[in-house]
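Run log // design_07
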């Protein structure tokens, strides 16, 4: 049976830009009713306007994902507007280049605060109701950078590894209670996050292509989905390599300046 978005209420974090914005516009077209979380109210209002001009339904929920009370309030508003939340797409995230020689632990805390703690506070805002209803779907937007260390990506990669493991453990706890968990591991996608980078980004994807792939994986209730297949295969090969071989090969690559 095909996936019916028209009876779904979906909370998307990081919806003001890039992947989150792309998912919002695509899911609204499929009939989902959306709560859009981000800090930039003006951008969220524009997206709500665009959704409504195509007869879709969305509300802007201005919040910082790190603020637990604000996330609970956002979920409450979405519930009051459209009904119980069926799906969370924990997408809000920030990137950074880590310079090992000038390591800034405050920056590490900031990235983990958004990418990991922010995702946890998003889950906490919706999961009690999902458990009560015995259904729901949690989706995390992680990264192919979560699988193994890559140069200049200690902070970002570690935050995404933490995010993936966090959701994997949640899956084990929540599956028996009727809640699906999908962890998405994308490669490079053209968004404001990657714009301006001069380093080579192999198999760089167009946003629309990536959004369609993510939606397909959600509809199939994939537990984990890594793409594009070419880069995902290279990353999987890296997982099999002995450490000295991995260090020799990966140490020469950098996807950040
Ligand atoms: N682009 C890629 O190549 C790529 C690859 C793999 C994974 N990803 C992941 O995909 C996700 C989306 O990335 P993107 O490329 O679409 O980047 P983006 O265009 O920079 O979007 C990031 C989104 O996160 C929101 N955000 C950041 N900090 C937030 C906070 N504290 N509270 C609430 N919202 C916050 C931003 O909104 P505000 O600034 O308005 O708050 C924005 O909507 C990230 O988790 C990223 O790590 C991206």
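design_07 sequence
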């Amino acid at each position: 049976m095909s996936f019916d978005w028209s009876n779904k209420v979906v909370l998307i974090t990081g919806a003001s830009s890039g992947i989150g914005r792309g998912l919002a516009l695509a899911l609204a077209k499929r009939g989902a009713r959306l709560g859009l979380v981000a800090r930039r109210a003006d951008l969220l209002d524009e997206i709500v306007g665009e959704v409504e001009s195509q007869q879709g339904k969305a509300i802007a929920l201005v919040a910082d994902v790190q603020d637990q009370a604000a996330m609970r309030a956002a979920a409450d508003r979405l519930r009051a507007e459209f009904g119980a939340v069926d799906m969370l797409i924990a997408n809000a995230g920030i990137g950074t280049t880590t310079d090992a020689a000038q390591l800034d632990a405050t920056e590490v805390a900031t990235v983990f605060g958004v990418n990991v703690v922010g995702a946890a506070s998003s889950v906490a805002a919706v999961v009690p109701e999902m458990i009560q209803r015995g259904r729901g779907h949690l989706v995390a937007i992680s990264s192919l950078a979560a699988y193994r260390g890559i140069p200049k990506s200690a902070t970002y990669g570690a935050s995404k590894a933490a995010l993936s493991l966090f959701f994997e453990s949640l899956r084990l706890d929540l599956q028996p209670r009727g809640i699906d968990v999908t962890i998405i591991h994308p490669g490079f996608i053209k968004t404001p996050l990657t714009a301006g980078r001069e380093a080579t980004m192999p198999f760089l994807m167009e946003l629309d292509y990536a959004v369609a792939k993510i939606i397909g994986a959600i509809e199939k209730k994939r537990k984990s989905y890594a793409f594009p297949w070419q880069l995902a295969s290279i990353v999987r090969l890296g997982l099999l390599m002995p450490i000295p071989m991995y260090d020799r090969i990966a140490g020469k690559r950098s996807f950040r300046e």
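Residues 13-20, 37-40, 43, 64-66, 91-95, 114, 118, 141, 143, 186, 188-189, 191-194 surround NAP (CB under 6 Å).
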